[in-house]
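User: I'm writing a short report section on ligand binding and want a predicted complex to refer to. Could you take this sequence and magnesium ion and write out the structure as tokens? A short remark afterwards would be nice.
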Amino acid sequence: MICLGIESTAHTFGVGIITSEGKILANARDCYHSVEGMIPNEVKAHHELVKEHVLADALQKAQLTMNDIDLIAFSHGPGLAPCLHVGKNFAENLSKEHNKPLLGVNHCVAHLTIGNLTTGLQDPIYLYVSGVNTQLLVAAHGRFRVLGETLDIGLGNALDKFGRKAGLGFPAGPKMEQQASTGAYVELPYAVKGMDVSFAGIITAAERKIGKIPLPDLCFSLQETCFAMLAEVAERALAHTRKKELLLIGGVAANKRLIQMLAAMSKERVATFAAVPLEYAGDQGVMIAWQGVLEYSHGRRTTPDIHPYERTDEIDTNWINASSTSSSLASSPQEPPDKKAQKSARSPCK
Ligand code: AMP
Ligand code: MG
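Assistant: Sure. The structure tokens for the complex follow:
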């Protein structure tokens, strides 16, 4: 089976093509950039403008025509409603025109499963850090369960908000990473609450220092503080669940310092760490196509609609091997976890 996936939840209009064996045939996309951030109707207009071109680009890269496609999947949420409508209508029209089955899938779940496919990790703790989302998850009892999450904004949006005030444009994350490379540490608030994190206050504190403290120092300190918070909750999740794999996914997974900190923590815990490859870290259609394959081949059928607020933990994960998920949180190894881990030590970092 060959599946074509359409992504349009936020800044990216993407079309990806993948086989049911997980062979990626094309990943085409066009991203909205601006000085002010995302203005929903402008992002929608961007998607309308580029959609045909992105589709043609994907088909050309894969050396296929629509006749070769067996299934069309689209991202039905969560996301900005005007943008979701573009993807849904485009997918629905293609489905009718070419007489292909159509399936709507959850964007966040697709971020997780493209991580599994591209890294080979089977049953990890997922650290999902994108624009809107910051969540720590594990597959258990037929769902992705949220172990911890942001109490206010996602880390990517938080960095973008600071970057906008600092004149770095949108998206700011990559530019802040560059700035941070020459920065020094200044103290900022640190906000971990149990397994949850909070970024809003840290960003406000950093914004108040703009113009008083060099920008590289602020970028460096924001990264160090926010990434340390994520490493802390991820480590606690590994300890509590006794999992031995940590998988970083989402757009912020592009950040080398975040990868370095999580790799170091995982090494100390003798856990395998992997970050999704850069090309599949941010939004793209390949992950939507792969999620389409997983769900369609396990019997899921949907009526085309949009779900702007659908959460990661609302989706039944019936494609995941039942035995590995049902035991995820319930297992109680006979030995202390650290001793057991030393016996089965894997390579610490991919
Ligand atoms: P997504 O919503 O998954 O496409 O992720 C987009 C978010 O990732 C945006 O908020 C970007 O600012 C952020 N991002 C992208 N690259 C980096 C980076 N190198 N460092 C930090 N954040 C990044
Ligand atoms: Mg995303």
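A remark for your report: The chain has eleven helices and twelve strands. Residues 215-241 form the longest helix (27 residues).
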